[in-house]
Amino acid sequence: MAKNVFKGMGVALITPFTSDGSVDFEALKALVESLVVNGADFLCVLGTTAETPTLSEEEKEQIKKLVVEQVNGRIPLLLGCGGNNTRAIVDTLKNGNFKGFQGILSVCPYYNKPSQEGLYQHFKAIAQASPLPVVLYNVPGRTGVNMTAETTLRLARDFDNIVAIKEASGNITQMDDIIKNKPDNFDVISGDDGITFPLITLGAVGVISVIGNACPREFSRMVRLGLQGDYSHALIIHHRFAELFKLLFVDGNPAGVKAMLHLMGACENVLRLPLVPTRITTLEELGGIIKSLNIKF
């Protein structure tokens, strides 16, 4: 039976770009090292926050290699491996390079809006093909389809190597339903920074975080306090970040966190089209909060 090692504060890793739009491997290397030494419990590589749809296959392989080498086994690595073509994903799982990774994150198929049975059959095929434990990813705001608690629990019960779900539906009742009725070998991970604290109080085991790129030490402390049951101190940190939670996503993700990292001197404020940087007003507000909270890279 597969075990979920993706607990605590995971970080949905960004992809830094240089001013000419190419991948900034030096900045990525420095960011990965900063995350490891400042409290990240695991990294999610080549997820949505990495702007993965805009990366070439060669760039993806280079990023995977760099992250694996830099982490050097110090924390677990979760690799984004999803899409809306089930056959193509299965082919990748059977033939791809997963050296150095401990699991895959697979998002609900987007755009083609499958039924709940279609979602079940999609993830059944992935579970049967995957050489690694599978973390499901439900994010209806991006995919156009919500995977219900019933479907999630059916998958969790039927496949031992489906070990967790990154839940970003925004529906606390649905998430609580999964937590209450899940098998022991299955976990719920928050997919939304802003509701990580309340979700942990309900029984979630951690988060795959965007804000963690810029604030790994502070945010990982909140997560650990919450997981230890020290809700009063965790809540203080949660409230400190409340305004940042809003600003990081007001102009889309990862525009907010890239702007924040740029202000901290960690990378250029560059995204690949169709994404663009935050508005100047957002940038200025982020700068004020970084200064007031004394956040440093």
Helix proportion range = 40-55%
- As a whole number of angstroms, the C-alpha radius of gyration is 18 Å
- End-to-end CA span: 39 Å
Order of helices and strands: EHEHEHEHEHHEHEHEHHHHH
Mean pLDDT: 96
Brief write-up:
With 297 residues, this protein is an alpha/beta fold.
Structural description of this entry:
The chain is α/β, with parallel strands linked by helices. It is 46% helix and 12% strand. It is built from 13 helices and eight strands. An eight-stranded parallel beta sheet has the order 7-6-5-4-3-2-1-8. The protein is globular, with a radius of gyration of 18 Å. The chain starts with 7 loop residues before the first strand and ends with a helix. The mean pLDDT is 96.
Please describe the topology of this protein:
Blueprint: E1 8-12, H1 25-37, E2 42-45, H2 57-71, E3 77-80, H3 86-95, E4 103-107, H4 116-129, E5 134-138, H5 140-143, H6 149-158, E6 162-167, H7 172-181, E7 187-190, H8 196-202, E8 206-209, H9 216-227, H10 231-240, H11 242-250, H12 255-263, H13 280-293
Parallel strand pairs: 1-2, 1-8, 2-3, 3-4, 4-5, 5-6, 6-7
Helix pairs in contact: 1-2, 3-4, 4-6, 6-7, 8-9, 9-10, 11-12, 11-13, 12-13
